[in-house]
Write a structure and sequence with these properties.
287 residues, mainly beta, Chitinase A, domain 3, eleven-stranded mixed sheet, 13% helix
Length: 287
């Protein structure tokens, strides 16, 4: 079985039709035996259904999705689990355990008219696009870095830790290396750059400042709304994570950071924004 997840910087990307990458997991006996990151090949919305079908995908895990895309995926024989958020790897694990429930076309989000900044402006990536976009303006993966491995498909094992030693991710624990196109912006910039000149079998340790990883928190991504204007928000508490539908019609992950009797405050910055990250990276193979 193959599971595809809309993918960006380790997390479930929140709009199926706009995803630039998919992470593909091959499953045997309810275990992940391989995983790799691929581009969307320039397709969007309903066309992605045929693309995933051609890849042999059986299940799609994503954030938000419209009815047209859902119908196209159903016709392609692909099961859809919409409404997922957070870590892509954790979403797949939850699905395999039967703990991931699809919320359908509309997902579990609320309407809100907050004007989110676009990742790409004028054909260039803004500061909030930690991965460098990898050709998101063109709709096709483009090689945006220079180096020996630029444009090559690589397989790496990695372990990610915070400065206090807390591990936040590890491919070693999953037992399968991560596959991606080096230099195409599929990974955070500092990670991509670290692999550019590595040789097969080499292991490196890198320390990434926020600017090389998920960027700094943007105060524009923290906003307050009236509870009576946001149905369902009265049931939320500080620390809850939800998906908000932005003015453009796509959902984003949001953290509730404050709440009064009349107002509620959300933060849609990436959970790793502002943090220094450490990676041990092993280049397993160059394809």
């Amino acid at each position: 079985m193959k599971i595809a997840v809309t993918y960006e910087n380790g997390n479930v990307f929140q709009h199926f039709g706009r995803t630039e990458n998919f992470k593909i997991y091959e499953i045997e006996d309810q275990m992940i035996i391989s995983e790799n990151v691929i581009g969307n090949n320039g397709f969007g919305h309903e066309s992605l259904a045929e693309y995933l079908k051609d890849l042999g995908v059986d299940v799609l895990i994503c954030g938000g999705m419209g009815p047209g895309a859902q119908n196209a995926l159903a016709e392609a024989g692909i099961e859809v689990c919409a409404g997922a958020s957070g870590s892509a790897d954790e979403a797949v694990t939850a699905y395999l355990k039967g703990e991931l429930v699809s919320t359908g076309v509309n997902c579990d989000h609320h309407e809100h008219e907050h004007e989110e900044e676009s990742c790409c402006e004028g054909g260039e990536c803004g500061a909030d696009c930690a991965s460098g976009c990898g050709g998101c303006c063109s709709g096709r993966p483009q090689i945006i870095m220079e180096g020996t491995n630029a444009g090559k498909t690589v397989r790496v094992h990695y372990r990610g830790t915070l400065n206090d030693g807390t591990q936040f991710d590890s491919s070693y624990d999953r037992g399968t290396p991560l596959e991606f196109i080096c230099g195409a912006g599929m990974m955070i910039r500092g990670f991509d750059q670290a692999v550019l000149e590595m040789k097969k079998g080499e292991i490196v340790n890198v320390h990434l400042m926020p600017e090389e990883a998920y960027g700094m928190p943007d105060p524009r991504n923290i906003f307050t709304v009236q509870i009576n204007e946001l149905p369902g928000s009265e049931d939320l508490t500080v620390g809850d994570q939800v998906a908000l539908q932005m003015a453009g019609g796509y959902p984003v992950r949001a953290l509730v950071t404050d709440k009064t009797d009349t107002e509620i405050t959300f933060d849609i910055n990436h959970e790793m924004a502002g943090k220094e990250l450490n990676f041990q990276i092993e280049l397993v193979d160059i394809l």
